[in-house]
Specification:
The complex is a heterodimer of chains A (about 220) and B (about 675). With about 220 residues, chain A is an all-alpha fold. Chain A has one domain. In chain A, about 80% of the residues lie in helices and about 0% in strands. Chain A is built from 8 helices and no strands. In chain A, helix 2 runs antiparallel to helix 3. The longest helix of chain A has 29 residues. Chain A is globular. The radius of gyration of chain B is 27 Å and the shape is globular. Chain B has a 3-stranded antiparallel sheet, with no helix packed on it. The longest helix of chain B has about 35 residues. With about 675 residues, chain B is mainly α.
Chain lengths: ~220, ~675
């Protein structure tokens, strides 16, 4: 079943776009455009969920798609923009690794993920596309967390990782039970709120959200 | 059926004590009365329960029948004996505590202390009852952690916090070894139940047996405070409040002895000779070193803690001898040695509890632990003085007090070694007996110093000058123990048959060796060899000896009253007195090699002949701390400092570690898959 869905042309196109949106986050130097790219990624993800729901005929996946649309592509980007405005942070992404090496590393990670999924033989050729995209998302999300200085980007990185996991889960199982999905959405939302509060606190204490400052905390 | 009610009853009373302490937290006096009263009722129920098990059948109580893991309580005669010891101590200490905690009223949180106190007792009891290794480890940790909280009760003092840290680190190292030992058993038996451990003990290979024993010996040895793992004990026991130190020193370290007996006799059958020799050697060394450090210690609670190490040593000598006899197939002798060890264990918990409560009383009324600063208290605290004197005589093994009987029994069991064929055993046990004799003499010396310096002569400080007699509950608690010390000393005829039943329950052969004649005469073994002790008779002789002295003192004669040790001087002050350091000086000189004393003298002269001031500082080196623990700690610290390099404090670096490992794992899978 899942092969049919994920093998379809439109699905492949969506997954490709999701990867492209991830590279948009990697490649932009403005906080706003990063958040926008994340919003687009989540929107595409909602679309993927919608197609899965349509082709399997499971109604609860429609709810999942709707929740993705509302929470991930609207509420969370809004929270981001709110934080950026409130703490009057410089709108630029400060980097450890500059843009062009970042994109090259991202590309390498995608290749590694593709080979990784291929080498796990139990997964069939077709759904492996979605799965390798999901592993790429997780590893690129982690890479974003490492290479960006601002605490906001760490938050964004973990959300990209979460999106990757969502893609992986839906491509393997054709939609987990609704209860589980609801739990995950709730976690993500609360997580974002807590991280937001944390960023406010960091900003208050250090007068900056540059996580380099946290080095002074070691004993 | 009655057993069931008693068991639930005493557990419930301790729980009640703990809960009510929290409920009445705001009212100090009410809270302490209810919670300590409840603990002492629990102790009475525990006493009845343990007697009924010792005289009756093994008690078995399973909480979740048929489930895995099965949690339950298993109380055979050996466990019952330890519950008996705990209950007796708890009863006296609880009465004492109602008076003692008055010192903390308004200053500290009484509800917290009472809660921990009750939970501490409960956790000790559960350690004794546990039927399952997992449950045992949980309650064992509970006991360690609660006792840690009790040790740091006066946490505003920096040395208390240090002592607490020291204690919790050592006790966790011990738990690590215990887990190793249990894992070896569980690996063979395939289950964590103690019953299967018992079966596994006989099927294990000798190597596994040896390592299981060794790990258990080290793990429980740390808790018991054997040399060289004793170093936490002289810090932790004095730091705790007086009533808690009485329980820790009197009872808690005995739980380790209990498990040692359980594992080496009950599970492993004491089959290897070298186990016995190592226990004997460690016991002998603990006994002599413990008392040597006690002699020169000016802090009375620390001195008592060192003396606990000595007494644990004596108990281990008995255990070791018992193991040696058993492995040489002399079960009757083994039973006698075991009885000696158990008797000493009981006695020690009584007189050490008494002395720790005594030290607590002295602290209560003088606010100092330093022996040098006391003196002349016999006039100010006459009742405490008499009670502490009984404790002192008992710990010094003077007939007819309790310490005498058990040390005499230990000696007897060591001297029975001539029944063995092995020359090595004979030599080892004889050496041990000789060292034990020296230990006994030094103990008497040490406590003579303690009593003399604290109670006789003139007060050496303001604190001692203004000391007053302690309140009635404290005297009652000590009085109960003092009475018990005398009873255990003159009535061994009633206690030994009971110990015989206990020893017989896991050694297999009853001692069958005691016959009791008139005046409480004991002879062991009853038929063949001659060895007679008559504590009762000795008591009468001693009392008769006192008659002339009493007559001498009571008859009114015309005699001049003058200061003690006046020596012809026009007046004598406290500064003329013999000090505690001076008193212990000879021992310090004889054992110079061990103590390595560092001395500093500073004299300033006002003129050529007149000294203006004189300062004397003397310090004793702690051999094990300096030569073993300090290097180990330094090494660990140095390694940690090196490892700290990777801890940059940067979030990016930490995430980078995760990322790196993730990528490496990916590569690994790719390489493996294709």
């Amino acid at each position: 079943m899942s092969e049919v869905i994920f093998g379809s042309k439109i699905m492949q196109l969506l997954i490709a776009f999701i990867l492209v949106s991830t590279f948009m986050i990697l490649g932009s130097t403005r906080l706003y455009s990063c958040v926008r790219a994340f919003g687009i990624q989540s929107f595409l993800l909602a679309f993927v969920a919608g197609i899965v729901a349509y082709s399997t005929g499971k109604y609860d996946i429609y709810i999942v798609a709707l929740l993705t649309l509302i929470i991930k592509s609207a509420v969370i980007p809004y929270i981001f923009i709110y934080i950026i405005r409130e703490i009057k942070v410089k709108r630029e992404v400060e980097l450890y690794v500059t843009i062009s090496p970042s994109i090259i590393i991202g590309g390498i990670l995608v290749v590694i993920s593709y080979y990784l999924i291929r080498s796990i033989s139990i997964i069939s050729e077709l759904s492996s596309l979605a799965l390798s995209a999901s592993v790429s998302l997780v590893s690129i999300g982690l890479f974003i967390m490492i290479s960006r200085k601002k605490a906001l980007m760490q938050m964004l990185g973990i959300l990209v990782m979460e999106n990757g996991l969502f893609l992986g889960a839906i491509s393997l199982t054709n939609g987990m039970p609704l209860l589980v999905e609801l739990g995950i959405f709730f976690d993500v939302l609360i997580g974002v709120l807590i991280m937001g509060i944390l960023i406010f606190r960091i900003n208050k204490t250090f007068e900056s959200i540059d996580t380099d400052m946290l080095k002074t905390l070691i004993g | 059926m009655v057993d069931n009610y008693l068991f639930i009853g005493f557990v419930a009373f301790y729980l009640l004590g703990a809960v009510s302490a929290l409920v009445f937290n705001k009212k100090d006096a009410l809270c302490s009365y209810i919670s300590f009263l409840s603990a002492s009722i629990g102790a009475l129920a525990g006493f009845a329960f343990s007697l009924s098990v010792i005289l009756g059948d093994t008690f078995h109580f399973i909480l979740n029948e048929g489930q895995i893991p099965e949690f339950g309580f298993f109380i055979d005669k050996l466990s019952a004996f330890f519950i008996l010891v705990i209950s007796i101590s708890v009863f006296a200490v609880s009465i004492f505590s109602t008076g003692y905690v008055r010192e903390y009223f308004g200053k500290k949180n009484i509800g917290y202390l009472c809660f921990l106190y009750n939970m501490f007792i409960l956790s000790m009891i559960l350690v004794i009852c546990a039927n399952n290794a997992i449950m045992f480890l949980i309650v064992w940790e509970l006991m360690s952690v609660i006792s840690f909280f009790l040790v740091v009760y006066e946490h505003e003092k920096i040395e208390t916090r240090k002592a607490g840290f020291f204690y919790i680190v050592m006790t966790h190292i011990g738990t690590g070894f215990i887990i190793l030992s249990f894992l070896i058993f569980a690996g063979t038996s395939g289950s964590f139940s103690f019953e299967t451990f018992r079966a596994a003990g006989s099927t294990m290979t000798p190597f596994l047996k040896d390592s299981a024993f060794l790990f258990a010996f080290i793990g429980f040895g740390i808790k018991a405070g054997i040399v060289p793992f004793h170093i936490w004990l002289p810090y932790a026991h004095p730091a705790a409040p007086g009533n808690v130190s009485a329980l820790m020193s009197g009872v808690m370290i005995k739980t380790a002895i209990f498990m040692l007996i359980r594992i080496s006799f009950d599970f492993l059958g004491a089959s290897q000779a070298w186990w016995g020799y190592s226990v004997l050697a460690v016991g002998t060394i603990s006994a002599i070193l413990g008392i040597l450090y006690a002699v020169v210690e000016p802090d009375m609670k620390r001195m008592l803690a060192f003396s606990s190490i000595e007494n644990i040593g004596i108990i281990l000598i008995g255990l070791g001898a018992s193991m040696i006899f058993l492995s040489n197939e002399k079960p009757i002798l083994s039973a006698i040695a075991m009885m000696a060890a158990l008797y000493h264990l009981l006695n020690h918990s009584v007189f050490k509890g008494l002395l720790f409560m005594g030290a607590g009383s002295l602290l209560y009324s003088t606010h100092t632990k330093n022996i040098e600063k006391l003196g002349g208290l016999i006039k100010r605290m006459p009742f405490s003085a008499i009670l502490i004197l009984i404790g002192v005589l008992s710990i010094s093994a003077m007939p007819p007090f309790s310490g005498f009987v058990s040390e005499w029994l230990t000696f007897q069991s060591l001297l029975l070694t001539f029944n063995l064929d092995s020359n090595f055993a004979i030599i080892m046990l004889s050496i041990s007996a000789a060292v034990l004799a020296l230990t006994g003499a030094l103990a008497a010396y040490c406590f003579l110093k303690f009593f003399g310096m604290v109670f006789l002569a003139l007060p050496r400080s303001e604190n001692a000058q203004h000391a007053r007699e302690v309140n009635i509950p404290m005297l009652a608690g000590m009085g109960f123990f003092a009475l018990l010390s005398i009873m255990l000393g003159i009535l061994p005829a009633f206690i030994l048959p009971m110990l015989d039943r206990i020893a017989a329950s896991f050694i297999g052969t009853s001692g069958q060796s005691f016959s009791f004649g008139t005046f409480g005469t004991i002879s062991i073994p009853s038929s063949a060899w001659i060895s007679i002790s008559t504590p009762g008779l000795l008591a009468i002789v001693l009392i008769l000896m006192f008659i002339p002295i009493i007559i001498l003192f009571t008859s009114k004669r015309n005699m001049p009253v003058y200061e003690t040790w006046g020596c012809g001087q026009p007046f004598s002050t406290a500064r003329n007195e013999y000090s505690a350091i001076a008193f212990s000086k000879p021992v310090q000189m004889w054992f110079k090699g061990l103590y390595r004393p560092a001395r500093e003298m500073e004299v300033t002269y006002s003129s050529q002949y007149l000294k203006e001031s004189f300062k004397f500082k003397s310090e004793i080196e702690q051999v094990f701390e300096k030569n073993f623990y300090t290097p180990v700690v330094d090494f660990v610290m140095a390694m940690s400092r090196k490892a700290k390099v990777i801890q940059t404090g940067s979030i990016h670096a930490y995430l980078g570690y995760i990322f790196g490992i993730l990528v490496i794992l990916f590569m690994f899978i790719i390489a493996g898959g294709s």
